[in-house]
Specification:
Two copies of one chain form a homodimer. By secondary structure, the first copy, chain A, is an alpha/beta fold. Chain A has helices spanning about 15-25, 40-50, 60-65, 80-85, 105-110, 155-170, 180-205, 210-215, 220-230, 235-240, 245-265, 270-290, 310-320; strands at about 5-10, 30-35, 55, 70, 95, 120, 120-125, 145-150, 170-175. Chain A is globular and about 65 Å long. Chains A, B: GO terms for molecular function: NAD+ binding; oxidoreductase activity, acting on the CH-OH group of donors, NAD or NADP as acceptor; prephenate dehydrogenase (NAD+) activity; prephenate dehydrogenase (NADP+) activity.
Chain lengths: ~325, ~325
């Protein structure tokens, strides 16, 4: 199956959109890349980075003649975008997206698309805490999963063509039902982000003196939460607005479990705490075995060298050399 | 102030103990390193790694003649250890530790120490998710904070000598009150770990089919929690048993804030969600500015290269070369 498209239209050019542009170009997957975005400033940035061939503020212009259209804007903008591009889509085109929720996307986009196009929502499970066109890099998808959630009416060869495109960028591809995707992502992604935002928020409410110490001593665990909580606020607002039911369901389970832990702390139930802290190790092991993580300590963060050895007894007895 | 000691006794030789042994040796800070640990297997491992000069299962033997003793065992073992070493400590010796809680340590250790030694509890804010003697490395403390919580009766020059020892291993050193330490660490470290353990536990309770998908798609946020939740279970059990009040206080604040977020999700209050998700960015920025974190995307995890460019139209029309 060819992974090649004549014209790729990227609507939105943040971290994911720009990474697709770079990866698709490097792998020779497209002849022409058209980039549309809402803000002139972002468009100029994309042009400076040479991410595409056509740059426009008009999504309709970008999709004209495109055989692959990928919505890379915040999910909250999809409804309006679908209304704009629907009437001008090329018959036979594949329409996809990269949003973190999928049932909602089907609900707001599908009604505005003509019967002559193939709508295959997608979600590359890849990202960093950085946003904007300059954050993208061609290796972002390598070794990462991309989930496609085609409707029942999409021919298998169309889904396979889009899957080939993602595989050519390094992704592993899996198809599933949109509702199931949303439930799995609620616990793997949305609740972790909600909790990370929440704990950083709790710190933001501490008195200033304590807050500066929190920042100083953040390497003890808190730091990792702040990375997660540094992700794009608008994107995450939209995630929680559009995957509400699955998020509330998983948040309920999380809070139930936390009450059990809270009680174990309060009653000093060491055996329960140790049992709970032990069984979580198996899941970590599975993630490393599944190639989704490295075993490098501390996430592979660089560790600086300690100072040059200090021959302290010499300095003590008559050194005085502070160099 | 000389950072040099004649004989360093390390009681316990896990990640922190072994890192101290390696860093102190490399920096020439000690003449002799004595290592005591509870299990023969761990002691053999330490010997194979050449971490010290004296190896023993008897903590009393290790501390005999030592002018610096550092407890590196789980905090739950401190009471018993203090009773064993107390009677044989060298007059004038500095006794310290590396436990994650400090008020409790003072409570269980101090009563068993003779008046002739200087007890200066310590906490190097550094670590990885790995444990055991083989997990240690000499650079672990470089650029990281070490908190000392000396009692009011400890002469300043003794605290300064221990601080010099830590600085020579690369640490930045700060002294503070034990109770204040425990409150700051509750929010920067203990609550993040509790929450991470909890979310991984919630996943462990999902049905098996969903669980394997959670592992597959863990790069979306969950993965980072599993690293934190892979830390040593016994150490963390002891942290929660011994810093109960500060943990419950901070957990209360965290849960209060989470209720507000939960309500915003339920009612679809996008403005509040976005405001909350935006203000957390400033804290992340402060942590990077404070040198406690790198700006490298995705924690500097290595990103694999995508596959070699596939000239798909050639392969499609007659290639057949799968090489």
């Amino acid at each position: 199956m060819s992974a090649h498209f004549r014209k790729l239209a990227l609507i939105g050019i943040g971290l994911i959109g720009s990474s697709i542009a770079l990866a698709a170009r490097r792998q020779g997957l497209v002849d022409v890349i058209a980039i549309a975005t809402r803000r002139q400033e972002t468009l100029d940035e994309a042009r400076d980075l040479k991410l595409g061939d056509i740059y426009t503020l008009d999504a309709a212009e970008a999709v004209r003649g495109a055989d692959l259209v990928i919505l890379c804007a915040p999910v909250g903008a999809y409804d309006a975008l679908a209304r704009i591009i629907g009437p001008v889509l090329e018959p036979g085109a594949i329409i996809s997206d990269v949003g973190s929720v999928k049932e909602h996307v089907v609900k707001v986009v599908a009604p505005h698309l003509p019967k002559t196009v193939y709508f295959i929502p997608g979600h590359p499970i890849a990202g960093t805490e950085h946003s904007g066109p300059s954050a993208g890099f061609a290796e972002l998808f390598a070794g990462r999963w991309c989930v496609l959630t085609p409707g029942a009416d999409v021919p298998a060869d169309k889904t396979e063509k889009l899957a080939a495109f993602w595989r050519a960028m390094g992704s592993k591809v899996e198809s599933m039902d949109a509702a199931h995707h949303d439930m799995v992502l609620a616990i793997t992604s949305h609740i972790p982000h909600l909790v990370a935002y929440n704990i950083v928020g709790t710190v933001a409410d501490l008195e200033t003196a304590t807050q500066s110490e929190v920042i100083k001593f953040s390497a003890s665990g808190f730091r990792d939460f702040t990375r997660i909580a540094a992700s794009d606020p608008v994107m995450w607002r939209d995630v929680f607005l559009t995957n509400r039911d699955a998020v509330l369901e998983m948040l309920g389970r999380f809070l139930e479990d936390l009450s059990v832990l809270q009680r174990a702390v309060r009653t000093g139930d060491g055996a329960s705490l140790e049992a709970m802290f032990t069984r979580t190790r198996a899941i970590r092991r599975s993630i490393i075995d599944a190639g989704q993580e490295t075993t490098a300590p501390d996430f592979g963060r660089p560790h600086e060298a300690p100072p040059e050895p200090t021959v302290t007894f010499v300095r003590e007895h008559g050194g005085g050399d502070d160099a």
